[in-house]
Model the fold of this input.
Amino acid sequence: MTSPALSQTAALGGVRVLDLTSVVFGPYASQILADYGADVIKVEAPAGDSTRHTGPSQEPGLAAIFLGLNRNKRSVVLDLKQAAARQALLALVDGADVLMHSMRPAKMAALGLDAATLCARNPRLVYAGLYGFGAGGAYDGRPAYDDIIQGLSGFADLTDRQTGAPRYLPTVAADKTCGLIAAHAILAALFQRERSGRGQALEVPMFESMASYVLVEHYYGRHLADTPGEAGYPRVLTPWRKPCRTADGHVCLMPYTDAHWRNLFLAIDRPDLSADPRYADIAARTRHIETLYELLADIVASRDSAYWLELCERLEIPAAPINRLQDLETDPHLRSVDFFQPLQSAAGSQYRFPRNPVRMQRSQVPAAMPPRLGEHTRDVLLQAGLDTAAVDALLQSGAARQADDAPPPAPKEPA
Done:
């Protein structure tokens, strides 16, 4: 249960979230809510979230991917195939502010956990369905993972246009972006509930979310319905939009405004480029962006990285070196803002976590370890109003599981 002190000092203190999701999309959204102080109860099947076994680990069930998505949460294990477990979940729903899940609506209805049923039971409930595709659409009910959504929503086409080969981004961009969208949709619904007194059902579909995300800049000429042009924003699609090779490495340069380009051309003694009408303003540069970026690459290759970083700092042109993944922990800025924080588990193992990037003046939420599978089952069920005998019966029957019980074997990856 969220402590009284935390309820008073956290932005979402006192808000209880039942999170029935797994893998990345939903858990990333609920971790954001937990970082703001919500009491997130992660409801897991007896085998647990599959990410508990994805990547290296120091303790069973606390593998790397799970660690990155589940801090500041409590874990309850309920086998929702059993009626007793479903009844226990309904007791949790009665005291919840949010329920989020990623199961097909028909499956939730078969379990008696559909939006209409739960919102009638608890009219203040925000019921969030996190799906691959929106209800009623041509793809409704299809399975969806990050790779599928990246392909459908245009990411693979973007890499094809830029590199000549369709590829997925080397990050789970769809899952994480949709997690951000889910978190802000839930917050908006909670805000409306504070005004109206009533909760509501909402859906966050991955495909529609990522199509919207991609098309912010790439709908481009298609916005002009009377005189439609091409889709795709040229500046970010050119193959020359990449870190510039220098005489001894690479730098990231981003001259963007008229003043940036003019001052850069004059500083390198190229007044002819400053006077070139192709590069005079943003409209002209956009039309000739590939030529301009290729030219910039040739220019930058003539000097070392330190020269360009010093020049750009002097001219107030955005520039930076490339950080390798392993460099982030020693980046001087991230170190100076205490971005990486140490935690110790109950078993004494040492861990390190990136903190919530947002800092709020009047909301302080200390980071807590991701939970062991079923670590809080007994406590949460008792707090929901079940008596000790009822909780013992659930645990003895296998409808619920406490962390002290023998854990099930790790699920095997499909062949």
User: Anything to note?
Assistant: The longest helix spans residues 173-196. The CA atoms of residues 162 and 238 lie 6 Å apart. The mean pLDDT is 95. The chain has two domains: 4-213+338-401, 244-321.
